[in-house]
Design a protein that fits this description.
Number of helices: 11
Shape: globular
Bound molecules: zinc ion
Number of domains: 2
Radius of gyration: 21 Å
Structural class: alpha+beta
Strand order of the largest sheet: 2-3-1-4-8-7
Distance between the termini: 31 Å
């Protein structure tokens, strides 16, 4: 009877994994014939099916193919970890779309932020915009997105687990405070006024740190090397960052708690060709992304706080500390 129940649960919780491959239109049409215009400007996409999977494996970048192969092998460690995670949403999510992009020659430059489908990161070594791993969900579908560039990381299995984790939890319907990147509903203050996303930031709320910490925690459960490296970060970095355009900078007990100043100064004017102003001080260069920032006059300051100086009610505004609690509890 117990066995039967478990089998039923598994059947109820199962989620389909669907894969789309994105590449330049000429490549898609040369290899697959049947591509379609994709959500990412300059790219077509194709649904990977039994009929074209051999073509995909033969013609597509090796790291994307490797991840695809592992996720489609129910006996692989990656798929086993993924199957544990896909029970989290109960029956709300029924399908996850994996969007795999060949970003070896970069994503299309100068695409308006609202039209970007993949999350972008600038790779200084190649001077290209590449597809940084990210995930969303909507209705009953999860969506995971990444490029060949990221899939080549040694720890990429844990990154995939992290992104799958994001598909299982409800996102903030309003978008307030919960994301730093794009969209007209978003207030860009979750990670402060700079474009960086640091694990030791004190964020605007506790939902986003929980989401991120959960993803990293599952990554650590999947990969002991990742877990050991993560815990080492906690023990080597005991200071927590808060920028002056983040929500908690408006709470006096947090902002004025004992701290050191990382950077402080007047925000410079936006230079030709820049979307946002750069801000440099004390050897740090930050790209400020707040839409509400008045340049050439307002000030920006980033402060560092020791754990023992963070008021208790803000401890879980840190994804780093939230993740550490999860690891310690799990032990
Ligand atoms: Zn994340």
């Amino acid at each position: 009877m117990l066995l039967l129940s478990m089998l039923l649960c598994e059947a109820l919780y199962s989620q389909t994994l669907t894969f789309y491959y994105f590449d330049k239109p000429a490549v898609i049409s040369a290899n697959f014939n049947t591509g379609q215009v994709s959500e990412e400007p300059g790219f077509d996409k194709v649904l990977i099916t039994a009929a074209n999977v051999a073509t995909f494996k033969r013609s597509s970048p090796p790291n994307l193919v490797a991840v695809y192969t592992k996720l489609n092998n129910t006996a692989s460690p990656l798929r086993k970890s993924a199957d544990r995670l896909t029970t989290i949403s109960n029956t709300i999510i029924t399908n996850i779309n994996f969007n795999l992009v060949n970003d070896n020659t970069g994503l299309t430059a100068n695409v308006a932020e609202a039209n970007q489908f993949f999350c972008r990161s600038y790779d200084a070594s190649t001077a290209l915009q590449v597809a940084w791993p990210c995930a969303t969900n909507s209705g009953s579908d999860g969506s995971v997105r990444f490029g060949e560039n990221a899939a080549g990381r040694n720890d990429f299995e844990s990154v995939v687990i992290h992104e799958i984790s994001h598909t299982q939890t409800l996102s903030d319907a309003q978008g307030f405070n919960s994301r730093y990147d794009k969209g007209t509903n978003y207030v860009r203050i979750a990670y402060g006024g700079d474009a960086g996303h640091y694990i030791n930031e004190l964020q605007a709320d506790q939902q986003l740190p929980m989401d991120e910490a959960f993803g990293n925690f599952w990554g650590g459960v999947h990969d002991p090397v990742w877990r050991t490296a993560t815990i080492a970060k906690f023990t080597s970095n005991r200071e927590y960052l808060l920028g002056s355009h983040s929500l908690l900078s408006g709470t006096a007990d947090m902002w004025t708690a004992p701290h050191s100043v990382l950077v402080s100064g007047v925000v410079p004017a936006i230079q030709p060709g820049q979307a946002f102003p750069f801000f440099s001080a004390n050897g740090y260069t930050l790209t400020l992304i707040s839409d509400n920032l008045t340049t050439g006059g307002s000030r920006y300051e980033a402060r560092m706080y020791r754990f023992c100086d963070i008021p208790g009610k803000y401890v879980f505004n840190s994804e780093m500390l939230t993740e550490l609690y999860l690891h310690l509890f799990h032990k």
